[in-house]
Amino acid sequence: MDERAVLAMLQLADSGFPSGAYTLSGGLETLVEEGIVRGAEDVAGCLRSMLLGRSARGDLAALVAAHRAAAGDPPDGEAIVVIDRSLDATKLAAEERVGARRVGRRIALEAERLTGSAIVHQFSEAIAAATTPGTAAVATGIAAVAMGIPEHEAALAAGHASALAFLTVAVRLGRIGHGDQQRLLREAGETIIHAVDIAQATDARTFRPFAPGLDIAMARHETAPGRLFAS
């Protein structure tokens, strides 16, 4: 990548990018509340499940597919809608669907404001017209194209960002400290790379995320009496 692409990648993946993703726990809050996740090794197991079970054949695969469609000459807006709808259909818990749509809408709006990209504008209009749900992963893939970030690097950055966000939730819930957070993030590096490899080899017509423990936790979160996070 050239230097501007590196900087764009850092900007899009940074926790300061106003997407609202930090409000989601991915089911971890429920697992902590119910005493299933108690310490660093439990968190590490959940992170691995999230990356390889859910993201590799779900969100990351959709990001890659959307990036390819948006990078075409011309960009394939119809394919992006199909990818977006397909990913949304794999999200079993209502909170995950709502959260992914809310974050995706914000990413698309920010990317359009920053880049003026025609394909990002088209995607934002489709979201506003309710013809596509606007999932976060698909919005990220399109935004990466608009910001000049290559496919592989965009997926790596997204995997890193989702891992960091998950571990930050564990810190806020008091299950790990900042030292363990950084250790687990570094140890997850090979898992993130493997997840991206799987995502790049996944057919966009066959998204199949599988992390039932996290899915059930998110579904149970909807009826929790007290909630710090939105999922």
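The above is record 1. Record 2 follows with the same two-line structure.
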Amino acid sequence: MNEILTKNIVKKYGFKFSKSLGQNFLIDDTVLEDIIQAADITTDDLVIEIGPGVGTLTRLLLQRAKKVCAVELDTDLIPILNEELKDFDNFTIIHGDALKVDFREIIGEEKSVKVVANLPYYVTTPIISRLLKGDYNFSSITIMIQKEVAERIAAKENTKEYGALSLLVQYHCSVDVVRKVSPAAFIPQPKVDSMVIKLNKLPKPRVDVSDEEFFFKVIRESFNMRRKTLSNSLKNLKIDKEKLQKAFEDSGIDPKRRGETLSIEEFAKLADCIKESI
């Protein structure tokens, strides 16, 4: 049903897909339903949808949510969305870039806020980073993203997928992998598999650190050259060699280890010990 609806809207308005905006519209009914179920939308929720396309998922969200605010960058989609969803009085659209819009202004006084999105692959990581670092009061983020990125987000230590993105997301959220999605679920079809994941915001960060910015700096440096040992990677922090050595001793972490072997708790301990030593 949603496949026919989406294709009819695209044809009706003569819409041309933009490769530069990474547009792939979801048309598979089972995937749409799985996203809705995972997002767990109620009549108390303000839903912020990033990249609504022609409103296929938006329509389902509007039937369940208190309000839906869609953020869409493509000028050509604004009149289509306004026309197709005009019967919903709980719908608002913002013509803008999700990397620049003021989410605090959108949220206002709303207490229950959830993000749902079929994210363009090329902006997945910047958008996730912005949502998590912005300290907004989202309770969850349910997103369709490239399978490879989803695997990196959900990865644990001692795997090749594990890295700075895994740690950023898991510092702020628990991660649930909802399902894999094949290219056939979209028009036009992408060249890679996708995945739906749900990020549930933790009541407080997963680990306590004395300096959050420094904690993530240590993580980034540890993964800049994955094959290097920690003692070599962390030279870029420009810290006295003896002080760095003392931090390794105080944290109980072997400087010959690589960043990919450290748990988030070990990174927290190491970062705090380095901070104390300088």
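The mean pLDDT is 96.
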